Request: fold
Amino acid sequence: MQELKIAMFGPRYVGKTSLLTSMYQEINKANRGINIQLIPDQYTQITLGKRLAELENLSKDFEGKDGIISTEAAAGPQSIRSFIFDLGQKGTKPSLRLHFQDFPGFYLLSSDQKEWAFAENILKESVAVVIAIDTPALMEKNSPKLKRTIKEKKFDLHEYSNRGQEVTDWFKKTYQDLNNPRLVILAPVKCESYVQTSQDAAKLLKRVKEEYANLLDLFSSPALASKVSVVVTPVQTVGNVFFSRVELIDEKPHFHFSKRSYDDDYNPKNCEQPLKYLLRFVLRLYVQNQWGILNFIREWLQLDQEMKEIIREYAKDCKTAEGFEVIQGKNLLNI
Reply:
């Protein structure tokens, strides 16, 4: 079985595993009536099952005192967390493996050369990168909801949580002399409070562009503009838990969330969009015959014409409004 590698990229505790968990749950719903399925391996099923239970329990609390509980990938090649899904038609043997690698968040600031080399390799070998963004940290840096202690210390919530400059520096190192196109998805997570109206979603999109301006400038450079497609896909990780306040405890920000109604259940939204964009990207490369290391996908889709049409049907409704936008590389996504 052939394999596509996708990097889940971002600092520690930003919500990469929660994003993947909610994404898988939403994909199961979105696939009803479409002849396509994702089958997790045993580790993925168990790990995401535990994470799902945590997110569902969070949604049962009227006041999420500690917010969305975070986890951390262990260090080293032997302990990297890999989440594997086999893709195929329902009732048939899968024909493509999607291998999500959880980038250890603390590697962003590591000074260890072995850790650097290991992390660089994850980004270099991944056809797509999903950058998880902690939305409350992004949006609340100048908010009246900040406790006075944070304002007095001029604590930059976004840089502390999302490490925008470090993220940019990693792409400067790894996206050099690319041989084949790449997809980069900027995925604001825990964004429920910021997408309830069109105006709010527009503000979120604007803030993403402002705070990641250096990264977007890198991608739009002459060497990368034709090779890198960049998409923003806001994800409501839980769906019913909204940011309420943030305070600084032991020099670390603690985000608090609450529900608007006690009866609201776990209901993530738009979590399937990153996968839809990924499959749309793969299908477009097939049409354009731009491959390099992905040459096997061309052979796969040539042999499985029905699967090609199923992917086309599944990915045709990628969102491009209400906070969603293809910032760059539309030609790499047109199907």
